């Protein structure tokens, strides 16, 4: 059932199945272009100060004006990405430039670290304690530089990337609360995002640096964080790879593992490594089976690999990004392996998402559902939800089904 | 309807109502002595390393062995408090000493700050980033010193208290992520707990120091954090008392305000200030009306004073401590003011608690219910729930109803 990656010919049964689902590409394309991007275009622009509002009520009204750097960077990335990949629409470019101008002017401290948050008018509110602010800033300026090549954007992207590499082994710095040495765990967020980031910056860094960065990350994710006995990926392990029987060590974040598996599949395509793609697809499917709520549907947010109570009180909630990433991973898994389980799971997650996350009345998707699948918060954006996971997933699913159907 | 605080004679209608509820004192006494304290005696003692396990499954089995200093201190306090106030049982004293020995040996860094958490065998895990660890340690050793007077315990309690006073204006130190000056908010947790703590340490500090500490705290809580227009207490305001329209500034924590109101009522009794008691009782009742979930019952965990989505994903959950504190505040409010609304609310919260939080099968109370009132986590103890709020509330409610009925 595995498709040949060199030549995109598909087995006849896959083509038959795909033809039953010929509308997915159109459905996700339409959702992106007619619903989600217009929602952010309409509601998130801060005309007065520059930058974006991201704390948006169900109907798009702004309920908080703080500017969170993760989400500023992600929205710049998103609109420039759409400009680069979907269509060179002037309004998308202007929207990306609007956020980039604000970020460039106010976003960094004197050492070039990106603040976590600013006031509406750009005063620093929260210190640069979180290196993912820097990651999304680098992604933003690299993507914008592809749209409108500019030495300033290049310089911001490259210097931010270099700063991330310098800080990466101790990025929490003074804010790190762990006592040194007692339980030295490593997390898989940063290696994963660095891998993704280096791909985003490849036009600036060159293929060689990217090629050097990829193999150790694949090794870490697929051999160190991955636990073959359970078929699951842990969020944190000891530096030497051992399991830590602690809250952090037992933590499984199904959405994060699923997202990582489509990054790995993309790397598999780049490396023409079908075994890697197969393994990533299997882990993704196993994670979905493990993380799926048999009673109410949807994917749990956090779980404990030993079945103990997780410390996160939001563990049983259904989050938009988890489900958006699952749709991407399942589409890519189906495209690349032809595994029927991907199709069945895609249909299941698709049905859940369109029934529960999508807001027919006011557009965009809810971010946070309770276990039962009704909105826990009716916001469309907040401190952590912005213009990123939904449009990125819609684009990826659209394009993947377009390839499957072609 | 207000009772005379000097002379405990009650109006006839209060006595009649109270006689209808003559069983509360006995019910809460029995719950404390036959269920809750035995549960912790049986399951939480770490015989090998000293100290207490607090991460306990529904049936008391230990699922995580880390030692969180808040909960170590609180359990030492609890067993010595019961020894001091209920009965000088040798097993309670030994249990308190068991935890205190571990804390004394491993709990502090070289500057006398209390770590946030340790491994089972006492290695530091999490730095002293949280001053409430120190508060509960001071409470623990002061209470133990009342049980078995000892210069070492006195010294630990007093030096910890002095250290808290020294650190109080910048207690987060290097771990503070707020950029200085942009939005300088103050919270009401620390003044409240310092007030409570000074009462706990009065035998060591002397009445004068305690009397100096009380009036500014009462002023802060009842005039600065309290918002008369809405009848609610905010968690955070600007240094000059202004409202901050931000996630932190809009935050209401009904359980915290309700708990604070019984601390204030206790201060009102001490100061013989009936107007203060009346005001605290009114704020408590208003907070309950505001925080009560009309659809499923129980008190919400977090709310936004402007009705916006709170940033805490656990906002709609029903937590044990919130409800335990409400039972105490309502009992005291009824005792001290005779306000019938306190009695009606007590009956309502009592019914909710005994139906939803209490675990008939395995003892103790669940800590975390979902909005609908079923256990979200079936644990009896964890990183934040230990041997503290439930036994303290059971004792307070028992003794208050004993006075009401006498």
UniProtKB/TrEMBL annotation, chains A, B:
GO biological-process terms attached to the record: carbohydrate metabolic process
CDD domains: AGE
Any one Pfam family match given in the protein's UniProt record, by short name: GlcNAc_2-epim
GO terms, molecular function: isomerase activity
Keywords, sorted A to Z: Isomerase
Domain of life: Bacteria
PANTHER family, sorted: N-ACYLGLUCOSAMINE-2-EPIMERASE
Annotated family: Belongs to the N-acylglucosamine 2-epimerase family.
Protein name: N-acylglucosamine 2-epimerase
Naturally occurring in which organism (per UniProt): Chitinophaga ginsengisegetis
Upper taxonomic lineage: Bacteria, Pseudomonadati, Bacteroidota, Chitinophagia, Chitinophagales
């Amino acid at each position: 059932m595995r498709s040949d990656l060199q030549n995109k010919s598909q087995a006849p049964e896959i083509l038959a199945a795909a033809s039953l689902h010929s509308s997915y590409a159109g459905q996700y394309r339409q959702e992106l272009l007619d619903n989600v991007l217009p929602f952010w275009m309409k509601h998130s622009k801060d005309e007065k100060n520059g930058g974006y509002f991201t704390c948006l009520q169900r109907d798009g009204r702004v309920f908080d004006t703080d500017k969170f750097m993760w989400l500023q960077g992600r929205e710049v990335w998103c609109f420039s990405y759409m400009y680069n990949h979907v269509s060179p629409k002037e309004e998308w470019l202007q929207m990306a430039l609007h956020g980039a101008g604000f970020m460039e002017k106010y976003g960094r401290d004197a050492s070039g670290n990106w603040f976590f948050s600013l006031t509406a008018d750009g005063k620093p509110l929260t210190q640069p304690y979180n290196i993912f602010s820097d990651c999304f800033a680098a992604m933003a300026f690299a993507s914008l530089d592809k749209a409108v090549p500019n030495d300033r954007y290049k310089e911001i992207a490259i210097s931010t990337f270099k700063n991330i590499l310098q800080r990466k082994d101790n990025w929490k710095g003074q804010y790190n609360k762990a006592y040194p040495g007692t339980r030295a765990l490593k997390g898989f967020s940063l290696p994963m995002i660095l891998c993704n980031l280096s791909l985003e910056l490849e036009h600036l860094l060159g293929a060689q640096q990217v090629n050097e960065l990829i193999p150790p990350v694949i090794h870490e994710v697929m051999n160190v964080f991955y636990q073959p006995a359970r078929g699951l990926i842990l969020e944190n392990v000891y530096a030497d790879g051992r399991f830590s029987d602690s809250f952090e060590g037992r933590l499984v974040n199904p959405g994060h593992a699923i997202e990582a598996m489509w990054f790995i599949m993309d790397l598999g395509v780049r490396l023409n490594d079908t075994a890697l793609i197969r393994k990533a697809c299997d882990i993704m499917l196993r994670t979905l089976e493990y993380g799926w709520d048999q009673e109410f549907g949807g994917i749990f947010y956090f779980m404990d690999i030993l079945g103990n109570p997780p410390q996160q009180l939001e563990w049983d909630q259904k989050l938009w990004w988890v489900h958006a990433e699952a749709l991407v991973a399942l589409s890519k898994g189906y495209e690349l392996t032809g595994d029927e389980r991907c199709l069945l799971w895609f249909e299941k997650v698709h049905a859940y998402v369109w029934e529960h996350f999508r807001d027919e009345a006011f557009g965009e998707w809810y971010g946070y559902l309770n276990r039962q699948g009704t909105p826990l918060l009716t916001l469309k954006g907040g401190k952590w939800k912005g213009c990123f996971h939904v449009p990125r997933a819609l684009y990826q699913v659209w394009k993947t089904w377009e390839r499957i159907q072609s």
